[in-house]
Design a protein that fits this description.
Elements: H1 2-37, H2 42-106, E1 110-115, E2 120-123, H3 125-131, H4 135-138, H5 143-146, H6 149-165, E3 169-176, E4 182-193, E5 199-208, H7 210-231, H8 241-252, E6 260-268, H9 270-277, H10 279-296, E7 302-307, E8 310-315, H11 321-334, E9 339-341, E10 344-346, E11 349-357, H12 364-380, E12 386-388, H13 391-413, E13 416-424, E14 431-442, E15 445-447, H14 449-458, H15 462-483, E16 489-494, H16 496-499, H17 504-515, E17 522-527, H18 528-533, H19 535-547, E18 551-557, H20 564-567, E19 574-577, H21 579-582, H22 589-604, E20 608-612, H23 617-626, E21 630-632, H24 642-653
Helix pairs in contact: 1-2, 9-10, 15-17
Bound molecules: ligand C2E and calcium ion (2 copies).
Length: 654
């Protein structure tokens, strides 16, 4: 502007100077010219002076015209040029605005720009919609005017932080909208500055991610549900085997080491319950049992159903030997009471193996194996008991395979022998029969049948083993009868697997033929639980066996929950009351009732009874008064070899 002034001033000075020189020149030359041209005539002088004046007027007019034309032309040109430029600029701005407007309005994100006074001056349609107002209504308002207090406060805090820190933010925010809807936004906010860096406003972009978050949440929930199903047993809702592995992995990965106890728990005779009362009933038992475990053990105990009737318990508190024993005894005590399901009372017991981390192993796989081995040992102790793992057991478990192959050799080498336990009439004190019990004498000592009979069943050796016992039993009977030493029967144990073997009847025929034994000298003992394993098949088989002249007794009677309805169809002569009812019979009213019921039942069905495991005179007296037909137990005799038995018989007859 100042430059223009200076230029105009210069031009004006030049022009005035030019005019001054011209004027002076004019006056000087024109007067001389007039003087030269005039002849001195005053009229002529006046005329020339007039012409001179006219000429001056004409020349200055032309000059003025030329100058002003040039000046005005230039001015006009400049002005119109400026006007055109202004117009073009205006159009460009309008176009830019339109472009920006359509751009921000086409966005589904809410876009706002506000001044430093927090008043909105640009908002797009999405933003206006969100506020429930029109674009024009929003302009000039602040967040406090539009949003619920908590949202306005949030927006103001964000703005203040941005201004304070001169920064930029991008984050997720849950906001309550003016219509009350809760919206999850992805917020992008920053500051606006001029080209020169002067701060003039704040922009904000709010992207609605509510649906996306909801979807994510749903997927997460579905995943969690799926994960839950994969890790839990649907029946009891307890964690399952997969959980167990993961928990053990986690527990054994900890540093420093945190000791814990692993209990492997297996229900006794659960299969029989399932077979007798059906799977639905069995399921109820499992549910009740899992609840009982949850009630009995400390709250932080992890209880896992690893399958079928197997549970694993992980304990981290109260894990000293004494506390564990107390807890175990409490469990066993509780299991003395029956479960009542659909008005049916069932007794359920458990065998428990216990291993300690890290004492028994710091490897969880091994820890599981050890608890499992300890549990099997507990089963062999006669069930409903617990057993801590000890190292000797490993040898035993590791030795199972060796044991099996040694057993095979022992059978073919005739290293197995039979011991005999007398059965006594409690009134006369006379031996009425003996039970043949197999023994395996090895160089390392005597292996009890409770260990090798299940092993033989498991490895398919029971057919061979059973065949040996039968042949040996038959031969003994023939020997004794032919010498007139003994007139009672020899009871021989038959396992279910042996009985249902397709060759069993044929084998018996052959053995009778081979040994010359009379079936009337032999009683076959079959456990109640094996009858329940394959009821129809075994009932039919027993019928055939009985028709050949053998006597049949049901071993371990009372433990298998056999239903009375089919007992009367069983071709059976004798019920052998299980040892578990005899134990503490003088102190345990429940056992007294059971024993009395079994004796009455047998009488009603025309069967005789024998009580096994009688150890004291009190037990004997009680049973005798109840009317039991015979007694087998340590009170009278332990199982003994043939020589010892014959000696005993001789002594008795003297
Ligand atoms: P089981 O048939 O119930 O045999 C009775 C078991 O109770 C015998 O154990 C016997 O020694 C024991 N016993 C007898 N009186 C008493 C007593 O007063 N108190 C105590 N605590 N126990 C007593 P054993 O000989 O160790 O036999 C264990 C099991 O092995 C038998 O139980 C039977 O199931 C099986 N078994 C034995 N021999 C054979 C066999 O030749 N074949 C088959 N399949 N199984 C056999
Ligand atoms: Ca027996
Ligand atoms: Ca028995």
């Amino acid at each position: 502007m100042a430059l223009k002034h200076l230029q105009s001033f210069k031009n004006a000075v030049q022009l005035s100077a030019l005019y001054l020189i011209f004027g002076i020149g004019w006056i000087y030359f024109s007067d001389n010219a007039v003087e030269l041209l005039s002849s001195g005539n005053s009229h002529e002088l006046t005329l020339l002076q007039n012409y001179k004046g006219w000429l001056f007027i004409v020349i200055t007019t032309v000059l003025l015209f030329l100058l002003s034309y040039r000046f005005l032309y230039q001015k006009f040109f400049e002005f119109s040029e400026q006007l055109a430029k202004q117009k073009a600029d205006q159009t460009l701005i309008e176009q830019k605005n339109a472009l920006l407007n359509s751009l921000i309005n086409s966005s589904s994100d809410a876009i706002v720009i506000k001044g430093l006074n927090k008043q909105y001056f640009i908002v797009n349609e999405a933003a206006a919609q969100l506020s429930g107002l029109s674009i024009n209504e929003v302009i000039g308002k602040t967040a406090d005017d539009i949003f619920p207090p908590q949202t306005a406060k949030l927006i103001n805090t964000m703005d203040n932080e941005l201004l304070e820190k001169k920064s930029f933010t991008e984050h997720e925010e849950i906001m309550v909208m003016p219509n009350g809807v809760i919206r999850t936004n992805w917020v992008t906010k920053g500051l606006l500055t001029t080209e020169k860096g002067e701060l003039f406003g704040i922009y904000g972009i709010y992207r609605d991610i509510t649906k996306a978050r909801e979807n994510e949440q749903e997927i997460l929930k579905a995943k969690e549900h799926f994960d839950y199903l994969a890790h839990h047993d649907p029946l009891t809702d307890l964690p399952n085997r997969l959980s167990l592995i993961e928990i053990l992995q986690e527990k054994s990965d900890r540093t420093p080491i945190v000791p814990f106890v692993l209990m492997f728990l297996d229900l006794d005779g659960f299969k029989e319950i399932n077979d007798s009362f059906g799977h639905r009933f069995g399921d109820q038992v499992l549910i009740l049992f899992s609840k009982l475990l949850q009630d009995l053990f400390p709250k932080d105990t992890i209880i896992i159903r690893t399958g079928g009737d197997e549970f694993v318990l992980l304990l981290e508190s109260k894990i000293d030997q004494h506390s564990i024993q107390t807890q175990m005894n409490r469990l066993i005590q509780t299991l003395n009471d029956p479960f009542n399901i659909d008005q049916i009372e069932v007794y359920i017991t458990a065998s428990i193996g216990i291993s300690l981390y890290p004492d028994d192993s710091s490897n969880y796989g091994e820890l599981l194996q050890k608890a499992d081995a300890a549990m099997y040992k507990a089963k062999s102790f006669g069930r409903n008991t617990y057993n801590f793992y000890n190292d000797g057991l490993t040898q035993e478990v590791l030795g199972r395979t060796t044991l099996a192959s040694n057993l095979k050799k022992a059978i073919s080498n005739h290293d197995l022998i039979l011991h005999y336990q007398p059965q006594i009439n409690p009134n006369s004190g006379k031996i009425t029969g003996v039970e043949a019990l197999v023994r395996w004498n090895t160089d390392e000592g005597m292996i009890p049948p409770a260990i090798f009979i299940p092993l033989a069943e498991e490895r398919g050796l029971i057919i061979e083993l059973g065949s040996f016992v039968l042949e040996e039993g038959f031969r003994t009977a023939v020997r004794w009868m032919s010498k007139g030493i003994f007139s009672g029967r020899i009871a021989i144990n038959i396992s279910a697997k042996q009985l249902i073997h397709q060759n069993f009847l044929l084998q018996i025929e052959e053995l009778l033929h081979k040994t010359g034994c009379n079936p009337a000298w032999i009683e076959l003992e079959i456990t109640e639980s094996s009858i329940l394993e394959y009821p129809e098949k075994i009932i039919a088989l027993l019928g055939v066996i009985k028709s050949k002249g053998f006597k049949i007794s049901i071993d371990d009677f009372g433990t298998g929950y056999s239903s009375l309805s089919y007992l009367k169809h069983l071709p059976v002569d004798k019920l052998k009351i299980d040892i578990s009812f005899i134990r503490d019979i003088t102190m345990e009213p429940k056992n007294q009732t059971i024993v009395k019921t079994i004796i009455a039942l047998a009488k009603g069905l025309g069967m005789v009874t024998i009580a096994e495991g009688v150890e004291s005179v009190e037990e004997l007296e009680f049973l005798r008064i109840c009317g039991v037909d015979s007694i087998q137990g340590y009170y009278y005799y332990k199982p003994m070899d043939e020589a010892a038995l014959l000696e005993t018989i001789v002594k008795m007859s003297n």
